[in-house]
């Protein structure tokens, strides 16, 4: 299967609330620099790199004196833009994937489709509390930003769980594994009967 260009992108987002730079190489070995200024968000992004098995660097800062909300949302937006650019017209990709991820008492399931139609189904009510000031509602904003700007439909289910750290981490690891599988090149054709995604 021929590939005409590297599947990579660098995207910067600068607002009055955040400054973020994402560099993505889908076909490079896992690795990269993660430094957003928020420890738990960094921990989640490190899981994305390791379990997504691609090269990803995320560097940024945000108005953490207010909340981590803006940083999480804008990181998701920038990640989504990087994936959209790196995938181009999406010719040859698997497009669909899902992954289950256990973590102690927690079991998460992520299903995604690089459809071009943004949608996130994830209602985290019932898992209150935070890990390092980061909670499941911040995670939803990270995923929502990603889906809106990558053109991804994603459904996340937490099938069991109690501890918020475990819930967030299992969801991110499931997202990472599904991302890896959905973005693999498996053919020379566009995975759609419409002729576009």
UniProtKB/TrEMBL annotation:
UniProt keyword list: Amino-acid biosynthesis, Cytoplasm, Histidine biosynthesis, Lyase
SUPFAM superfamilies tied to this protein: Ribosomal protein S5 domain 2-like (SSF54211)
One record GO biological process: L-histidine biosynthetic process
Enzyme class, spelled out: lyase
Gene Ontology cellular-component terms listed: cytoplasm
NCBIfam families on file: PRK00951.2-4 (NF002114)
Name this polypeptide is given: Imidazoleglycerol-phosphate dehydratase
Organism (species): uncultured Truepera sp
